[in-house]
Design goal:
Length: 153
């Protein structure tokens, strides 16, 4: 049950969704929208109010509905605060695409330990940091920056 919502979400917030074509935030948001995923997608970026003809929210707290999963694509130093905001909203899963954690040395390891503690505090199933995301072809769910959706199986 703990991972079920992470891998079968009804709603996803993309924190770091971007209007810049070719960026990870743009590609990942497009992937969620173009492969048949039936859940709600909420782009989050304080620098724009619309993306892919959808409202874009300044932060996760501004999203009017419930959010099951937060995909976080922002600089590493900002991740703890955003993860805490997601936990306060009741998000039960997070995918941290962002890099800059223990692979960068001791300071990055401390940052990674901090996000692990926040995830534990709020009961958030965590995938990442510094990951591709995941793909779930039967749901049309490409929660990654991989260019193509593989076939089922």
């Amino acid at each position: 049950m703990y991972l079920e919502t992470l891998f079968s979400p009804q709603s996803i917030a993309v924190i770091g969704a971007s209007t810049t074509e070719g960026s990870v935030g743009h590609t990942l948001t497009a992937n969620l929208l173009k492969n048949g995923y039936a859940g709600k997608v909420y782009p989050v970026n304080p620098k724009t109010d619309q993306l892919f003809d959808m409202p874009c929210y300044p932060n996760i707290a501004a999203i009017p509905g419930a959010v099951d999963v937060a995909i976080i694509i922002i600089p590493a130093a900002s991740v703890p605060g955003v993860l805490r905001e997601a936990g306060s909203k009741g998000v039960s899963g997070a995918i941290i695409i962002a890099a800059g954690f223990k692979e960068t040395g001791e300071a990055g390891k401390q940052l990674e330990d901090e996000i692990a503690a926040i995830a534990k505090e709020f009961g958030i199933a965590l995938l990442g940091p510094n990951c591709l995301g995941f793909l779930r072809p039967p749901l049309g769910l490409n929660a990654s920056f991989a260019k193509r959706m593989p076939p089922n199986g």
